[in-house]
Amino acid sequence: MGADKTSTSRVNPLRDLKRITQTDQEVVWHPYTQMTEYAAQDPLIFQRGQGSYLYDVRKRRFLDAYGSMWCNVWGHCHPELVAAIQGQAARLCHSSLFSATHDQAIDFAYKLVEYIKLDYRFAHDPVTLNHVFFSDNGSTAVEAAMKMALQYQNQVGQIKRQQFLVFEGSYHGDTVGAMSAGSIDVFKRKFNSVMFTVHRAPYPMQVDPDERPDNWRTAERSMEAQIAGLSDRLAAVIIEPVIQGASGMVPLAEDYLARVKKYCAEYGILVIHDEVFTGFCRTGPLIAASPELVEPDILCLGKGITGGTLPLAVTVATDRVFDAFKGEWSEMKQLMHGHTYSGNPIACAAASKNLDMIEEHKLAGIVKQRSRELSILLRQHVQKHPAVGPIRQRGLAVGIPIKNAKGQDGYEARDDAIKVVNACIEKRVLLRPLGNVITICPPLNIEHEGLEEIVHALADSLKALG
Ligand code: PMP
């Protein structure tokens, strides 16, 4: 930084607010942000977090109702996670997993594999998701899964199986492979020239957990026909179990996941579950698909994996997939993929502590209870508003569709949702719109009072729609 712009951490934030704001606009390019619009607003400059709250430089307190991009599990700066991070940072900050290892990767991978088995304990066949491949964000976890599937099919002699089937509304990340597997046009359209073609099947939405939608049979037949028709070409099917996040919180029809697995198994096509969003108790259980007893061949996890503290992600493979990569070096069967910070020890220490806490505090039960409370509150105070469509919820993942007066839908129709979200921010509750859908994804250990605060701010802010 130049002499007249010394580090912002050493200045009095309130006195220098104008300068910090200006420096932010000059040097920080924010993701998914129209910088012209951003520069015209007063930014929220956070400095501290505690529990479900974030504090900005003006010492204002905000409820983090979107869990800092859907990843917060235990609130901010939970003392146990902070201690695990500090302890590990003092011992070893980083060493690579390329043909070497460290105690934190071993410890976390061992625990994770055990906990996955525990989650699937009622499965008919033994669960063999035993091999943890580390990366550092959700997109790369999916990217690695896709490469695993392609190379697996090649190495078991199915050389023509080099394509993917994905689902309408899918989102799997922003790297080119994961983006190609996505189906949301606004994220992709500027990059079409470098993406590869995938096949798409319907993802039937079920709003009411007890009532399967009418279209689910038609959707199933279409998905089955595609899998059968493409069976000699598909390496894998990639699906977000239980609920799609980025498409605006779209819950999946009951049993559909089991049908996907059934048809894939018939033809030897791999199933990849992208649980980057749903994993780590967002919908209740550690692994969202586990109550349905549907085990994927490859499982992607991220976001809540470190309790929302540090970047880490994993791609977990079954014995069957892993075994196809064994051999002599000269056979070149090894997976040629990895990142400098894959399985960083500090992130692994946080992830390990997160798993201990999930077990010790029985987090799945807490999420079940809180999600029931949130559902009741939303029904009482938000659902009745004429502009609100049927609210979609699984666990502590909620989508509130705002009906657009012009009848528009999707990402283009965001104006009304933004009005409501901005009014919420004025009431010190942070929410995030996805097109015309307002999403709520609070820290999973949020107190009942926190839920009330969110719902009342939202109900009040709906008045912004007139
Ligand atoms: N998959 C799913 C289902 C996601 O929701 C996301 C992120 N929202 C990703 C992958 C990508 O994760 P990341 O942002 O960590 O790259």
Could you characterize the architecture of this molecule?
The protein has 466 residues and is α/β, with parallel strands linked by helices. The protein has two domains: 44-77 and 362-465, Aspartate Aminotransferase, domain 1, CATH 3.90.1150.10; 86-360, Aspartate Aminotransferase, domain 2, CATH 3.40.640. The chain has 15 helices and 17 strands. The chain has helices at 17-27, 35-39, 67-70, 79-91, 103-119, 138-155, 176-180, 185-188, 216-229, 256-267, 319-323, 345-360, 363-381, 415-426, 448-461; strands at 46-50, 53-56, 61-64, 129-135, 163-167, 199-201, 234-239, 243-244, 250-251, 270-274, 298-301, 313-318, 392-394, 397-401, 429-430, 432-434, 437-440. It has a seven-stranded mixed beta sheet, with helices on both faces.
- The CATH architecture term of the largest domain is 3-Layer(aba) Sandwich
Structural class: alpha/beta
Bound molecules: 4'-deoxy-4'-aminopyridoxal-5'-phosphate
- Going across the major beta sheet, what is the strand order? 4-12-11-10-7-5-6
Task: Extract low-pLDDT stretches.
Answer: none
Tell me how many strands there are. 17
Biggest sheet statistics: 7 strands, mixed
Mean pLDDT: 95
CATH topology tier name of the largest domain: Aspartate Aminotransferase, domain 2
Shape: globular
- What is the straight-line distance between the termini? 46 Å
Please compute the radius of gyration using only Cα atoms.
22 Å
Number of helices: 15
* Count of the separate structural domains: 2
CATH class of the largest domain: Alpha Beta
The named CATH superfamily of the largest domain? Type I PLP-dependent aspartate aminotransferase-like (Major domain)
Q: β content, as a range?
A: 15-25%
**Portion in helices:** 25-40%
